[in-house]
Amino acid sequence: MAELTYRDALRSALIEEMDHDRRVILIGEDIGVYQGTFRVTADLLQRYGPTRVIDTPISELGFVGAAIGMAMLGLRPVVEVMTWNFSLLAMDQIVNNAAKLRYFSGGQVNVPLVIRGPNGAGVQLSAQHSQSLEATYAHFPGLYVVAPATPAEAKGLLRTAIRSQDPVIFLENAALYGLKGEVPDSDFALPFGKAAVVRNGRDATVIAYSRMVHAAVAAAEQLAGEGTEAEVISLRSLRPLDMATVVESVARTHRAVVVQEQWKPFGAAAEIAMRIYEEAFDQLDSPVERVTGADVPMPYARTLEARAVPHEADIVAAVKKTLGKQ
Amino acid sequence: MDTRSVKTAPPRDLGRDELAAAVEWYGKMVLVRRFEEEAEREFRRGKIGGYLHVYSGQEAVAAGFLSAIRPDDIFFTAYRDHAHALFRGAAPGAVMAELFGKATGLAKGKGGSMHLFDVARGFYGGYGIVGGHIPLATGAAFALRYQQADRICLCFLGDGAMNSGSFHEPANLAGLWGKQGLCPIVYIVENNQYAMGTPVDRSSAVTNLASRFSTYGIENERADGMDFIEVRRLAGRAVRRVRETGRPYAVELLTYRFAGHGAADLFQPYRTKDEIAQARQRDPITLLEDLLRATGALSDGEVKRARADAERVVTDAVRFAEESPPPAPEELYRDIYGADG
User: Fold this and answer.
1) Residues 6+ apart with CB under 8 A from B41
2) CA of B130 vs chain A CAs: smallest distance (Å)
3) Which cofactors does this protein require (chain B) (predicted)?
4) A71: phi then psi, degrees, rounded to nearest 5
5) Domains within chain B, CATH numbers bracketed
6) Residue in A69, A96, A142 nearest the CB of B139
7) Same domain for A124 and A174?
8) How far, in Å, CA of B233 to CA of B225, rounded?
């Protein structure tokens, strides 16, 4: 075990995979000389040279598409998008090529590709730089969508992503890069589709992913002070979704709250809540609650932004509502 | 340059190998034309669904280039892709079965006309979003050189694709990567004069499409795409150069689509019958046939035999497609994720 930041956990996974497999290459804007906007790729250009750490022009469509072509020919490109907002410029490539190539070729090609970068709100980045796109990508068959919450999850899931035969949408979070945590040494990997119970509790299940796991844990601690024990699940991946862990938990607590940073309509929480109704309806003692971002383009003003993203207090209120304690 | 005004070239000095290749590829072009005519008929019979884009008129382009590459080279194209698969040696039955949506199709009946793939032969696909395959081919070329192979990649694209960002972004990348010898690709613009129904002069501010590659530092040339011999010679030079340097190269080949854009393009209000008839005066197959007859490499009997062979192969392909089973129901959920998924 070593204590690493989320950033260094990601970076160490890249280094170990690049050392172990020459097919792994990095592509993105300002990942080399500039060292990466969030320094996840710091010093990697020096370490591996410009044919393995490729600085690109600002052409998401071009370099994401090119990375798909590289993957089809057997390389294992890891693409950095400076933020997931910019992936929209490459969406045709991700959705129409990466996700579907295996299928429409009748299984003739693999696309072992990782696209990674920060997803969700930052600090006062306003409408174009604060979006949460997980449900958008999780909609498409053929993609994996993962969203690590901790340094250990970041490293373990990135390793699995790089070794995958299929494209992985790897959602990081700008607010988490400096977060420290214990990370197992050596060949540590976490499978997709296996959620983690990060806090045990008997009264309600709070389901979250990425940064919202931390808000959920903080809410659970506050609730514990008031005598309510909330269980917190970190989903780790949205596609595949580990409903077995969720259902097992809800079968014990009989109450569920799903937390997401993104907009409420047609979001991840809608899907997860519906799956709970489909698979554990009889276990529920109250309706599933959703805690989400406000249904507005992200405002710039600090005061308004604070009202647009979910907080610990919202999760506390939602848990209480499932318990009829409002 | 308007290909329709170019006169048939007189017989040229053809080497023995060149002549033998021309005779062989003449047969393949006859087969492809017959295959496409039959595909249109099967579409009208309701045996083929979805979209169907046939290659008739453009044969010398794909034939010229695919006759000039090595078996380990690779290529990508858009949705007008039947000819590319057939020229590369895919079984006509497997191509027709794909159009019929059968389990024995090249892509198990999951891709259809627009998504033919034959990766074992280096054919990395037909793609349905105009221009969407150009970034893939560019990255694939990088991967070949990264793996230190002297293999090269061909990227066929249409005139319509050149106005999309998915042309310009990878072209810039290719120019950049080519400076380091890391992008062995030939972009082959099949300028058939129309993007669906919009002619080049109404869709591109600059109508010399080859010259547009100069913006990205990619050397380029423009040539008659109806003349198999000329295309093949040019292809040989382009491929050799790209293989040696690892730098991209671009060719605009002036050609013409005899059929509609797709099988649903019945009335073709964007062009006259007269224009089509005039273009047919320079049918690439007739041009090659005339040349080979003039040189004595092809007799009347051999022409007849080529046509009869094509008829038989296409009839067999249709029978194979008809008799093949549809994909099994469980195929619906297969090939979404790989073995680890």
Assistant:
1) none
2) 11
3) thiamine diphosphate
4) -65, -40
5) 16-323 (3.40.50.970)
6) A69
7) yes
8) 12
Least Cα distance to A259 among A221, A227, A295, A232 occurs for: A232
> 3-state SS of B257-319?
CCCCCCCCCCCCCCCCHHHHHHHHCCCHHHHHHHHHHHCCCCCHHHHHHHHHHHHHHHHHHHH
Contact A105 B119 (CB under 8 A): yes
User: For residues A301 and A123, is the Cβ–Cβ distance under 8 A?
Assistant: no
Mean pLDDT calculated for residue range A281-301: 98
The C-alpha of A262 sits at a distance from chain B's nearest C-alpha, in angstroms, of 27
Question: SS3 of B15, please?
Answer: coil
pLDDT attached to residue A313: 98
**Are A26 and A105 in a shared domain?**
yes
Q: In degrees, to the nearest 5, what angle opens at C-alpha B135 toward C-alphas B131 and B141? A: 130
Q: What single DSSP character describes residue A22? A: T
pLDDT band of residue A254 (cuts 50, 70, 90) is very high
Range(s) of the domain holding residue A169: 2-183
A160: domain CATH number is 3.40.50.970
Mean pLDDT taken over chain A: 97
Element (H, E) at A79: strand A76-80
- What are the structure tokens assigned to B8, written together? 């048939």
Closest CA to A117 of A75, A160, A156, A88: A88
CATH number of the domain to which A261 belongs = 3.40.50.920
Packed helices B284-294 and B228-245: angle between N→C axes, nearest 10 degrees: 100
CA–CA gap between residue A66 and residue B133 (Å, rounded): 9
- Residue A254 known to be catalytic: no
| CA-based nearest residue in chain A for residue B167 | A62
What is the interface pTM, i.e. ipTM, of the complex? 0.96
| Residues A237 and A279 both lie in one domain | yes
Interatomic CA distance for residues B25 and A272, integer angstroms = 58
| Per-residue CA distances from B21 to B14, B40, B228, B297 (Å) | 10, 29, 11, 11
Q: Within this chain, do residues A169 and A27 fall inside the same structural domain, yes or no? A: yes
Residue A190 lies in a domain: no
d(CA B81, CA B142): 23
The residue among B327, B71, B147 whose CA lies nearest residue A72 is B147
How far from B184 is each of B66, B147, B180, B330, CA to CA, in Å? 16, 12, 11, 40
User: Considering only CA atoms, which of A238, A244, A280 is closest in space to residue A259?
Assistant: A238
Instruction: Give pairs for B7-16: CB < 8 Å, separation 24+.
Output: B8/B282, B8/B287, B8/B290, B8/B291, B9/B227, B9/B229, B9/B230, B9/B287, B9/B291, B10/B294, B11/B291, B11/B294, B11/B295, B12/B229, B12/B291, B14/B229, B14/B295, B14/B297
Question: Which helix (DSSP H) or strand (DSSP E) does residue A256 occupy?
Answer: strand A256-263
State the maximum Cα–Cα separation within chain B, in Å, rounded to a whole number: 59
Question: What is the number of structural domains in chain A?
Answer: 2
The pLDDT value given to residue B13? 84
**Catalytic residue list contains A60:** yes
User: Which of these three, A134, A152, A183, is where a domain ends?
Assistant: A183
Determine, yes or no, domain membership for A191. no
What chain B residue is nearest to A109 in terms of C-alpha separation? B119
Q: Which two tokens stand for residue B107?
A: 């892509």
Q: Which residues contact B323 (CB under 8 A, 6 or more apart)?
A: none
Tell me the one-letter amino acid at B265.
Answer: D
Token pair for A72 = 């089809």
Residues of B in contact with A68 (CB under 8 A): 135-136, 139
A-chain CB neighbours of B133 within 8 Å are 97
In a domain, A298, yes or no: yes
In tens, the pLDDT along B44-92 reads 999 999 999 999 999 999 999 999 999 999 999 999 999 999 999 999 9
Q: A108 with A151, same domain?
A: yes
